[in-house]
Write a structure and sequence with these properties.
Blueprint lengths: L1 H24 L22 H36 L20 H20 L3 E2 L5 E3 H4 L21 E3 L4 H11 L4 E10 L13 E10 L6 H16 L5 E7 H10 L7 H8 L7 H10 L5 H11 L2 E2 L1 H9 L1 H5 L1 H19 L6 E4 L12 E7 L19 H12 L41 H8 L11 H5 L12 E7 L3 H6 L5 E6 L1 H22 L12 E5 L5 H13 L4 E3 L7 H11 L3 E5 L1 H5 L2 E6 L4 E6 L3 H11 L1
Parallel strand pairs: 1-4, 6-8, 12-13, 12-14
Antiparallel strand pairs: 2-3, 4-5, 5-11, 6-9, 7-8, 9-10, 10-11, 14-15, 15-16
Amino acid sequence: MQVVRCRQLARVVFSNNITSTFCRTRTRYRDSWLGDQKRDIFVESPTMEATALSIQERLKAKQAEVAALEKELLDSTKKERKDKKADKSGYLLKTPKGTRDYGPKQMAIRKSVFKKIEAVFTNHGAVNIDTPTFELKEILTGKYGEDAKLIYDLADQAGELCSLRYDLTVPFARYVAMTSLSKIKRYQIAKVYRRDKPRMTKGRYREFYQCDFDIAGDYDPMIADTEVLRIVYEIISGLDLGEFVIKVNHRKILDGIFELCGVPKKLFRGACACVDKLDKLPWEDVRKEMVEEKGLKPEAADKVGEYVLLKGGDDLLEKLKANEKFIKNKSARLGIQDMELLFTYIKMFNIADRISFDLSLARGLDYYTGLIYECVLTDDMALLDDVPFLDDLPETPAAAADAPAAAATADAPAAAATATAPEASSEGAAATPESAVADKKDGAAEESGEAAAAVAAVPVEGVPVGEAAAAVAAVPVEGVPVGVGSIAGGGRYDELVGMYSGRKVPCVGVSIGIERVFSILEAREYRKLKEAKAKGEQYVIKKRETEVYVASAEKNMAGHRIGLCTMLWDAGVKTEVSYNKNPKMLNQMQYCEAEGIPLAIIIGSRELANDEVSLRVVATREQVAVKKGDIVAAIREQLAKL
């Protein structure tokens, strides 16, 4: 801020000098130089060229002064950053707003979730594709309605205007159009980018993963749509996130409602975007936005409210069918016909108990043309109160106590047993204080006020005081619950491919809000850590997949340990070994316990003499002697029992 003010001051001073000089060189002027009045120069001074050179010299002098001031301020800023526990280079170490790092514990959770989701996708016959992180800007333009302002535009690259992808759906439609495909069932797991207002604790980021499943092709109505709903059901159930409901609606029904209520067609999408906020705002606020910002007449908005606040199941479907005025509308009638088929198929797919017909569901994206849906958690698992990010905390008293010993003797193969360094903190995390405070329109009414103030002021256990404000601001305040919103959403988009190729390829798909899922699972693991800590027990979040650790209690065994480790690697056994030549046995076993490694192989002079090893179960400390040639089979057998 000081640098900017210095630059402004320099410009003002220099501008005044120019004004004074030119005033002296004019022999005649009219009107006033002040305010908004214009001056006309009638006679140009013969000394004008000399004056210009003088001005240039003074400009250089002023620029030098500004540069000196900037250097002074930069030095001051570097010193201030050091005082804020920046590193010796003078940089304030943090990730950009709306992004975060992921430590080993977090990555272990993420990898497990991705594996489960991918298994569901492949079980339904999907193939995997990938698309570029950025697309031509014209490909993305006009597809996202009001959310188009959230697209990240890139600088001109050799004549191409590009933008970071906002989602995976539009790039998929472009892919289908380019490859001339008429049918494909695909999934894609990749990062997308949005200039959104981050809310880290709710899993809303500017850089985040999406897990998409889409079916492209011309099929009989609603069968593919219902399978997509079944996929959502399998994923959310398999991740054990708690109770949930899948809300469904139809774009044609919404269009019919707007038409019946006297909303001009040109205002349909704007009205739709307003209705989409009903899960965050009360109807009064939505109605006000419709009238004051979107241009709907008050009576039209009131009529819309009579419909969009309705929800139910078969009963709502029957109620709408009984409404003669409603069913006579062509768009509404087509939507009802699709919904009748849907309610027939959801019973066949055995997901009827999870479906809610909700007329307030609108999905703000412009490309949807038919069925739309969202999955929302309905129980306390959706509330993330008192939950720091996992890597901000030591695991348990036992693990934290063991870690320094292992690290001090360099017995841990790659790192200390439990990393306690804070991870700076999605939609999506390091957050700045404003990350935790979103405006009311973005659905953060529950977070403004006491939560916003408390988040910035309350230190978090395990995060050193003075660390980057991001690490503190991203943590919810104890007692202030934070919901995560919808965790999956999608719909039918039959015209998107045609925008690029001129041929119609109907599509339907869903995107899993994976960052919000991670927020919930992180909260669960943190609560387990907290409960274990209260009981004085050890709880380990398994960060690595190591199955066996090769250890020795005697000196000069490094060659034998490495040879055995190499043999196990060749056999496909996930194995670790200490990098020290003569590690202490206690430190090796503590490392296994802290990292959750289930088995240890112990070798010594006695084992070598008998051509055998000792196979130990780390948790129970039971061990048996196994011939060296049988060790791989013995490991497989023991792992199967655990």
